[in-house]
């Protein structure tokens, strides 16, 4: 079965349609291995920027972003409810740049910023009530991303404090957090930092953990078997001011993609994507780069080598594990996540949220 028909079959079976319902012209592509994809925008009724995205299924998704906003849908994106924490006037502009969710009830959100703007809140009643479970007490810390490998265990990562990337760890689903001893973390380089662009600067897969960094040239990737002892490798992605690795995703313990580029030059389309097949120890530049700076990426679970990347200048798909990327959309998104081929979601500025489907 060609990959295109696999993807068509997967999306159709997820949507309950039959393959014969798709006009045959949609299969007639010059390169039949590249699926024909498009984003269907959903009516959030919001103008906020949603860099936080956590789909749970094809029906349930959470997005989070500027001005303390958190939205949730339980009907595939047809309707959205504002479910963010109630914030004091002083906190009303907190930016929830990352969200992790397990159901329509349970979610964790991370607000970014220096000092006490870096916070974590959790809910177990769908956002009706939230508990603030972490607030940074370090002036220099700036937490960018949070991720979990089980419902109980996760980390959040901050820009370097005293010369090393700072992590906090939870064993109770985000209810309590402890600073991780940094003795197993290699030193950060001067000006090295992470990017809170899409909630994917921290990643776990196949029992391993990864953190993406930039600010230095090239951008680097930190890798760890346990989140405590880390190694670091150069990527092939150009780094420097506002540049480097913005998003990292692995599909198992070995195979990963890293993307990014220059946030301030978003149409730059060289040295903005790389792949690894050794658990992030070494990186190879993509043979065909995405069309611009990319802030978010995701594998498509169930479609072995397929991944999607998004950024302000467009979306790209790879069907060969990140070796070559093919643009399929030129609208702006910051974040993307696929639960499976029938449940790929993207989110970004201007209240934009979308689900992937065929034209
Ligand atoms: C967020 O809030 C600020 C301050 O109230 C306001 O100026 C800004 O327009 C808001 N952003 C959006 C996208 O609504
Ligand atoms: C990123 O782009 C901006 C604007 O073009 C430029 O000033 C800056 O030098 C670029 N950064 C790097 C690391 O090339
Ligand atoms: C984006 O795509 C649309 C529809 O395919 C097209 O009309 C538009 O010109 C494109 N915009 C850019 C900036 O390429």
Automatic annotation (TrEMBL):
Residues annotated as signal peptide: 1-19
Keyword hit for Phosphoprotein: no
Coiled coil: none
Keyword GTP-binding applies: no
Key words of the record: Signal
Protein name: Oxidoreductase
């Amino acid at each position: 079965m060609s990959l295109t028909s696999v993807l068509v079959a997967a999306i159709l079976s997820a949507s309950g349609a039959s393959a014969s319902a798709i006009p045959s012209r949609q299969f007639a592509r010059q390169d039949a291995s590249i699926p024909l994809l498009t984003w269907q925008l959903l009516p959030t009724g919001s103008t906020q920027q949603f860099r936080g995205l956590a789909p749970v299924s094809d029906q349930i998704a959470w997005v989070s972003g500027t001005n303390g906003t958190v939205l949730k849908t339980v009907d595939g994106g047809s309707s959205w409810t504002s479910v963010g924490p109630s914030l004091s006037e002083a906190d009303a502009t907190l930016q929830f740049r990352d969200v992790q969710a397990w159901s329509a009830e349970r979610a964790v959100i991370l607000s970014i910023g220096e000092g006490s703007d870096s916070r974590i809140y959790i809910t177990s009643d769908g956002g009706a009530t939230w508990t603030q479970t972490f607030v940074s007490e370090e002036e220099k810390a700036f937490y960018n991303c949070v991720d979990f490998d089980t419902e109980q265990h996760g980390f959040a990562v901050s820009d370097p404090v005293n010369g090393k990337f700072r992590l906090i760890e939870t064993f109770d689903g985000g209810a309590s957090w402890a600073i991780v001893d940094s003795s197993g973390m290699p030193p950060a380089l001067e000006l090295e930092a992470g990017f809170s662009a899409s909630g994917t600067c921290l990643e776990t897969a196949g029992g391993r953990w990864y953190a993406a960094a930039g600010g230095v040239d090239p951008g680097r990737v930190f890798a760890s078997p346990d989140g405590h002892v880390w190694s670091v490798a150069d990527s092939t992605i150009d780094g420097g001011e506002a540049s480097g690795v913005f998003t990292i995703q692995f599909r198992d313990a070995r195979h990963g993609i890293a993307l990014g580029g220059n946030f301030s030059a978003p149409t730059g389309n060289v040295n903005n994507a790389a792949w690894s097949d050794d658990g992030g120890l070494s990186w190879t530049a993509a043979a065909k780069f995405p069309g611009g700076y990319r802030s978010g990426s995701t594998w498509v679970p169930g479609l072995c080598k397929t991944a999607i990347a998004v950024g302000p200048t467009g979306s790209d798909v790879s069907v060969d594990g990140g070796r070559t990327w093919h643009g399929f959309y030129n609208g702006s998104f910051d974040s993307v996540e696929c639960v499976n081929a029938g449940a790929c979601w993207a989110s970004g500025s201007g209240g934009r949220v979308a689900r992937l489907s065929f034209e």
